[in-house]
Amino acid sequence: MYTRRTCLYIFPEEFRRGSDVFKITIGIICVLFFGAILIASASELLLGRNVLKIDDKRIHYTVPFGKFTFEWKDIEAFSERNVMNNPFIVVHLKNEEAYLRNVSGIPGFFAKANARNFGTPFTITSKNFKISHTQLLDLLKDKLSEHLQNDGSLKYKELR
After folding, report:
1. Backbone angles phi, psi at 52, to 5 degrees
2. Which has the closest alpha carbon to 41: 65, 23, 24?
3. Would you kindly state where each structural domain of the chain is located, as residue ranges?
4. Which residues fall within 8 angstroms of residue 113, CB to CB, at 6 or more apart?
5. Phi and psi based region of residue 123 (left: phi greater than 0; alpha: psi -120 to 50; beta: remaining)
6. How far apart are alpha carbons 82 and 86 in whole angstroms?
7. CA-CA distance, 81 to 99, in Å (whole number)?
8. What Å distances lie between residue 152 and 129, 147, 148, 155, CA to CA?
9. Which of 40, 75, 116, 124 is surrounded by the fewest CB atoms within 10 Å?
10. What is the mean pLDDT of residues 81-89?
11. Are strands 52-54 and 66-71 parallel, antiparallel or unpaired?
12. Residue 134 has pLDDT above 80, yes or no
């Protein structure tokens, strides 16, 4: 006693009797989705752009389909989280809503998901960097402390 839906999984010949328009639509969606992923991956690999650039005024973080720029004066602190053994550096901003208004599309979707899961919309992963996660976190904390001292602000506060 099988329903029509389970027949597609058990008996693939049932799929042959389906609508051609449905099959073509699913095929086009798959080609567009995986083609976009292939193009984004190839462009990142071939262009060799800097994914993370740290200078005296800001942090530039490039992700597929988007680029984030954080001013040092807007950064409150850095913390770390592990999600399924992948370390993430969480960027805590003073005015996250202002940054979220400037983010749309796929990066905006992920930023809002990060806000729900981590309490802040912006995270940095060091998985593909030539520097280790702890070295990058220490570098970012040192740069933030240096900026706060030059700015005359309070010392860096540790978030956990």
Report:
1. -130, 125
2. 65
3. 4-47, 52-151
4. none
5. beta
6. 5
7. 21
8. 32, 9, 6, 9
9. 116
10. 83
11. unpaired
12. yes
Question: What pLDDT digit, counting tens, does each position of 104-113 carry?
Answer: 777 778 888 8
3-class DSSP string for 88-143: EEEEEECCHHHHHHCCCHHHHHHHHHHHHHHCCCEEEECCCCCCCHHHHHHHHHHH
Single out the residue of 97, 93, 89, 61 nearest to residue 77, CA to CA: 93
Q: Which two tokens stand for residue 120?
A: 């802040």
First to last CA, the chain: 55
**Geometric angle at alpha carbon 107, from 97 and 125, rounded to 5°:** 95
